[in-house]
């Protein structure tokens, strides 16, 4: 079920074939048997949110190769975050990795929020690798739901992309800022909307603890 959910959320057009399901199962048992179902689900969530940096390309195929790459990214991220925030790697002297609790997962994202807010205060910009914070904040009801605000943000996003298109040096660069794809707003527009929404939020809340307190109220 967790893989069907992951496949649907990344926009795969076709269902996972039975042969790939079996291959994924065997791969999990061989390489990632210490990961719980909840952790696997969380690993794909972080991938969707762009936490790992460069996205893993699936090429419209959900198979063992794609799944293993995502889970490898998750394990690297897990080791790094545990090292950065001094979270113990092992428990009870066993060789099994200690699964992060839900509170620890949220704390890690909140640390990312603090860092992104501090950087915005200093540079007035949002790092591409921090866009995942929009999805997290939206999940907790922090981002605006008003349709008129969203429409305004979309207009600002399109203007920003047009400006970047004009500054592009060649056709390849211009294509990076396309506004439409298959008659719909491109992913670039979606990302720019999230970027601008975070900028507006950080501008409104000069103190990041104000945002965090709202998250904890809604948790």
Chain-wise SSE layout:
Blueprint: H1 2-9, H2 18-31, H3 37-49, H4 64-84, H5 102-123, H6 132-139, H7 147-167, H8 171-175, E1 180-181, E2 184-185, H9 187-204, H10 208-218
Antiparallel strand pairs: 1-2
Helix pairs in contact: 1-3, 2-4, 3-4, 7-9
**What spatial order of strands do you see in the largest sheet?**
1-2
Averaged pLDDT: 82
Residues in helices, as a percent range? 55-70%
Radius of gyration (CA) equals 19 Å
Low-confidence stretches: 87-97
Total strands: 2
Shape: globular
Give me the secondary-structure category: mainly alpha
What's the total helix number? 10
User: How many strands, what sense, and barrel or not for the largest sheet?
Assistant: 2 strands, antiparallel
Strand content: under 5%
Number of domains: 2
Distance between the termini: 25 Å
Q: Write the H/E string, N to C.
A: HHHHHHHHEEHH
Descriptive overview:
The protein is an all-alpha fold and 219 residues long. It folds into two domains: 2-100, no CATH class; 103-218, no CATH class. Helix content is 64%, strand content 2%. It has helices at 2-9, 18-31, 37-49, 64-84, 102-123, 132-139, 147-167, 171-175, 187-204, 208-218, and strands at residues 180-181, 184-185. It has a two-stranded antiparallel sheet with strand order 1-2. A hairpin with a 2-residue loop joins strand 1 and strand 2. Helix 2 packs parallel to helix 4. Mean pLDDT is 82; it is low at 87-97.
Short description:
By secondary structure, this protein is mostly helical. It folds into two domains: 2-100, no CATH class; 103-218, no CATH class.
């Amino acid at each position: 079920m967790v893989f069907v959910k992951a496949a649907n959320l990344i926009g795969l057009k076709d269902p996972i074939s039975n042969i790939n399901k079996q291959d994924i199962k065997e791969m999990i048992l061989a390489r990632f048997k210490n990961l719980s179902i909840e952790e696997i689900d969380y690993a794909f969530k972080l991938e969707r949110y762009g936490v790992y940096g460069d996205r893993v390309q699936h090429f419209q195929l959900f198979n063992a190769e794609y799944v293993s790459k995502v889970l490898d990214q998750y394990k690297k991220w897990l080791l790094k975050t545990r090292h950065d925030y001094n979270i113990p790697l092992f428990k009870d002297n066993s060789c099994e990795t200690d699964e992060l609790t839900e509170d620890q997962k949220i704390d890690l994202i909140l640390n990312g929020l603090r860092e992104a807010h501090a950087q915005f205060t200093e540079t007035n910009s949002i790092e591409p690798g921090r866009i995942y914070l929009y999805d997290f904040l939206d999940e907790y009801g922090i981002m605006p739901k008003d349709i008129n605000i969203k429409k305004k943000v979309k207009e600002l996003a399109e203007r920003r992309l047009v400006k970047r298109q004009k500054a592009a040096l060649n056709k390849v660069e211009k294509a990076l800022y396309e506004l439409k794809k298959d008659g719909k707003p491109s992913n670039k527009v979606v990302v720019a909307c999230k970027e601008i929404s975070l900028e507006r939020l950080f501008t409104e809340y000069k103190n990041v603890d104000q945002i965090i307190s709202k998250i904890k109220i809604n948790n």
